[in-house]
Write a structure and sequence with these properties.
The complex is a heterodimer of chains A (271) and B (597). Chain A is of the alpha+beta class and 271 residues long. Chain A contains 5 helices and 10 strands. In chain A, the strands form 2 sheets. A 5-stranded mixed beta sheet of chain A has the order 3-2-1-5-8. Chain A has a 5-stranded mixed beta sheet with strand order 4-10-9-6-7. The radius of gyration of chain B is 24 Å and the shape is globular. Classes of the chains: A alpha+beta (271), B mainly alpha (597).
């Protein structure tokens, strides 16, 4: 019985590895971090978790202790608060502001300004990858600028629910929606941005580990919201170039000047 | 009678109670009857909203399987299966019903009406007739909600946040969505009427001697809630009106210029209007619970509330801050980074006053003489779930962590711990505590305690499971969360959370049974005017239930709300408490330390 089960598990494992689908996570705990900067978010989450657990145990423990110790048989103390006990309250609150809220705020300020929302720095890098994504009910359309570096020209590579990016280069995505509000979310990269119709929003990340990851829509966008799923593939530099060349050649061959619907791209908007 | 009392007596003469059935029980202007009307309406919808939650949980635990028992009844067309279109209606209406049509009427409609006049020593609300209109308007909005279920395309499905363009005809063309938006508008009008009434009553009709710093904390909570309601619910009402115009009259307030929509408006405008209301709404639902807890913990610890003034000011600061943090719901819409940082700063600052309130509860229990009756158990349980909810809020008020956690089940778990668990248990605290005042009898203690443990453990496991799922990245509002491979490992977690949810729901029938047994059964004995031996006016200065005119004579308040275990009072009366308007034998006033606190 047992060896048979083992072989079955092995076979399933091999089949999964062979399939092109992203590997399922174990569950429980943050999903695999495949980005260069996701660890900043993870660090904050872990720091906050430790801090709130400590506060919870401290305050909850005191309450529990008081409940057990000062039960009905215990005569109540006629005491509406003294300087000492009020000082204790204020001191504890001050401690939380300084030791928890303060570091949280400062850390986030640096992360947002230097990394997550610092589009200017990413755009200055020579290896930056620019990408336009148009969301619609219920799919993600991708557009690469092609050799001319301009969007909405005949040499653009276009994809559906399939984005590919090179390893180690900053990727700047500009997002638009044709219908309702969506949200472009990359759980394995710890980034997410709403896609608002009538507006262009931005998102930036940098991949650290090659592989296939999922693109999720995080904002309820209609009955089939749950199916608005795409795949983001992180490829090593040469393989990415290779794929891009093929995609551009395909795009040129498929280009139809009369198909206005297909030319949804927009001029890149520097911030 | 003092001159001040005479003035209040002249302002609020005793009227004869109405004799006809309709005037007494249906179109009543008596705040105590209206409170019970709100209670019934709210509890029925609470059951309804809870049942919807069970269907959502079924879908997450057992996707693509027909719903047992009720499936054949309500989902006959699909063979008992929940489809994606029905699913989105389930979570939309669950949210809307619970917030606007269940928790709001119980916590604010019922307790606000019942307690404000009784606890401040008034004969009724400042505007009794407006009070009646408020209830009947509310009932109309509930009927609109029910009607929306019977429309051709079904009820609303754009999420409780009703974001356009999805909530306009572009995404939800059915009449059901229109009726639901109309219901939000109508219930907003009802809440505003109620709030104006509460605010006025507290300012104008406090009994002589009932200074602001002698108000029971429950009244502080309800009053601050009423102020927030009067300021911000009209914002929601106007947004709902604009959305109705967009849906029915071709305006384009929220329709953007995008290829499939073609309008001239801005969907982000809705989000601003919605959350300017939406964040204060969180505090609208939690401040009454805070107030109730502040009083009940002091009452059952037999000890003056620790640093009463600190709690009052903390609640005021939270009220003010609550209006300045709404942007944290919109961090990812592409708002200016500077704005995001400002909203984050204010959000983090809210932790300070909230912590003051919680620590004051702990220090009130410290060195008390704790009586663990059902209301006290519920109060402590509320403090527990509120602690979890408040602390998990820290993650979400932060822009960086929001990049990952926004729109995951972590958010769902967080706001269920605060708005659902804490508000619900806070309401139960109040219900068990003031039940003798409303119905003249005490709820059964054994059933009550069983109900408490079911509820506390159930709520913690269910919403704790949601926090875990969100931490692992499960998105909220997914018909089939397991479309995504990276959360395949969470199937077991989702299933177990569903089992716990079903148990939690079943456990609520302990309360239903207790409620009916006590109100209609013959076994329960009358509770007497002051079964909990506490100080506030509704217990110490009138009978249970109070007469139509509340007080035979308007009381003259002489001390704060938490005069417990004063040795001087014990020497004079032999009791460990003194009513707020009680004149002690010998006429000597004991040093009122509780008032200074």
């Amino acid at each position: 019985m047992r060896p048979r089960r083992l072989t079955a598990a092995l076979a399933i494992g091999l089949a999964r590895a062979a399939a092109a689908d992203p590997l399922p996570e174990l569950g429980y705990g943050l999903p695999r971090d495949a980005s260069a900067d996701g660890h900043r978010v993870d660090w904050l989450i872990h720091f906050t978790m430790a801090a709130v657990a400590l506060v919870f145990l401290l305050v909850g423990g005191t309450l529990l202790f008081a409940l057990i110790r000062h039960r009905r048989a215990h005569p109540a103390h006629y005491q509406p608060g003294r300087k000492g006990s009020i000082g204790l309250v204020l001191g504890f609150v001050g401690l939380i502001l300084v030791a928890v809220d303060g570091p949280l705020f400062v850390h986030t300020l640096f992360d947002m300004r230097r990394v997550f929302w610092n589009f200017a720095a990413a755009e200055e890098r020579p290896d930056v990858v620019r990408l336009e994504v148009q969301a619609r009910q219920w799919a993600w359309q991708g557009r690469y600028p092609g050799p001319d570096g301009k969007f909405n020209t005949p040499d653009d590579a276009v994809t559906l629910n399939d984005l590919r990016v090179p390893l180690g280069a900053p990727v700047v995505v500009q997002l638009a929606s044709v219908d309702v509000v969506h949200s472009f979310s990359l759980p394995n990269f710890r980034v997410k941005r709403d896609v608002v119709p009538g507006d262009i929003t931005r998102l930036m990340f940098q991949a650290r580990t090659p592989g296939e990851y999922e693109i999720a829509c995080a904002q309820h966008c209609g009955p089939n919201h749950y199916k608005m799923r795409g795949i983001l593939t992180v490829l090593p530099e040469e393989r990415y170039r290779e794929w891009l060349r093929t995609a551009e050649a395909d795009a040129r061959r498929a280009y139809d000047p009369d198909d206005a619907e297909a030319r949804w791209g927009w001029d890149w908007r520097p911030e | 009678m003092t001159p001040a009392q005479a003035l209040m007596e002249a302002a609020q003469p005793i009227h004869a109670p109405p004799t006809s059935f309709w005037r007494r029980y249906v179109f009543s202007i008596d705040h105590k009857v209206i409170a019970r009307q709100f209670l019934w309406a709210g509890l029925l919808f609470l059951l309804f909203g809870g049942a919807l939650a069970m269907l959502i949980r079924w879908q997450w635990g057992f996707p693509y399987r027909p719903v047992p028992l009720v499936g054949g009844l309500f989902l006959r067309g699909s063979g008992g299966l929940i489809g994606p279109a029905v699913y989105q209606q389930l979570f939309t209406t669950h949210g809307l019903i619970m917030i606007f049509f269940a928790v709001t009427p119980v916590l604010i409609g019922c307790f606000g009406n019942l307690l404000i006049p009784l606890m401040i020593g008034a004969r009724d609300m400042a505007f009794p007739r407006l009070n009646m209109y408020s209830f009947w308007t509310f009932l109309l909005s509930q009927l609109l909600v029910l009607a929306s279920f019977f429309t051709a395309l079904g009820t609303a499905g754009a999420g409780w946040t009703t974001y356009p363009p999805l909530s306009t005809n572009v995404g939800m063309p059915g009449l059901g969505q229109t009726l639901m938006v109309a219901a939000i508008f109508v219930t907003g009008a009802s809440s505003t009427m109620g709030a104006v009434n509460y605010v006025t009553t507290v300012i104008r009709l406090r009994a002589p001697g009932m200074t602001y710093m002698r108000l029971p904390l429950t009244i502080w909570g309800l009053w601050l809630t009423a102020i927030l309601t009067a300021l911000f619910v009209p914002v929601l009402g106007s947004a709902a009106l604009l959305l109705l115009l967009d849906r029915e009259f071709g305006t384009q307030f929220f329709l953007p210029a995008a290829s499939a929509v073609r309008g001239g408006g801005d969907p982000i405008l809705w989000q601003h209007l919605f959350w300017i209301f939406g964040h204060p709404e969180v505090y609208i639902l939690i401040l009454p619970a805070w107030g109730i807890l502040g009083d009940v913990i002091s009452f059952f610890a037999r000890k003056p509330h620790h640093w009463y003034r600190g709690t009052v000011w903390a609640m005021i600061v939270v009220t003010v801050l609550s209006a300045m943090v709404y942007g944290h719901h919109m961090f990812l819409t592409g708002m200016s980074p500077l704005l995001g940082e400002g909203f984050m700063l204010f959000t983090l600052l809210i932790s300070a006053p909230s912590m003051v309130v919680v620590l004051n509860w702990v220090l009130t229990v410290w060195k008390g003489s704790v009586r663990l009756d059902t209301p006290m158990l519920f109060a402590l349980g509320t403090a527990f779930v509120f602690g979890v909810g408040g602390l998990t809020g820290l993650f979400l008020g932060d822009v960086s962590m929001d990049l990952y956690l926004h729109d995951t089940m972590f958010v769902v778990g967080h706001f269920h711990f605060t708005m659902a668990a804490a508000s619900f248990m806070g309401a139960m605290t109040g219900l068990y505590f003031w039940f003798p005042k409303m119905f003249g009898r005490r709820l059964d203690e054994r059933l009550g305690k069983a109900h408490f443990w079911f509820t506390l453990i159930g709520l913690t496991l269910v919403f704790g499971g949601q926090l875990l799922a969100g931490y692992a990245g499960q998105q909220r509002r997914l018909f089939d969360p397991f479309q995504y491979t990276f959360i395949q490992g969470l199937r077991g977690l989702n299933r177990w959370t569903s089992y716990f949810a079903f148990a939690l729901f079943a456990g609520q029938f302990l309360f239903v049974a207790n409620f009916f047994r006590t109100v209609f059964g013959r076994r329960a004995a009358p509770s007497g005017p002051n079964p909990w031996e506490v100080t506030t006016l509704e217990w110490s200065a009138t009978s249970s239930p109070p007469p139509f005119h509340n007080f035979d004579r308007i009381p003259e308040v002489v001390r704060g709300p938490h005069e417990f275990s004063n040795p001087e009072v014990r020497r004079l009366t032999g009791r460990d408490y003194a009513g707020q308007a009680e004149v002690l034998p010998g006429g000597g006033e004991p040093a009122a330390a509780a008032g200074k606190g």
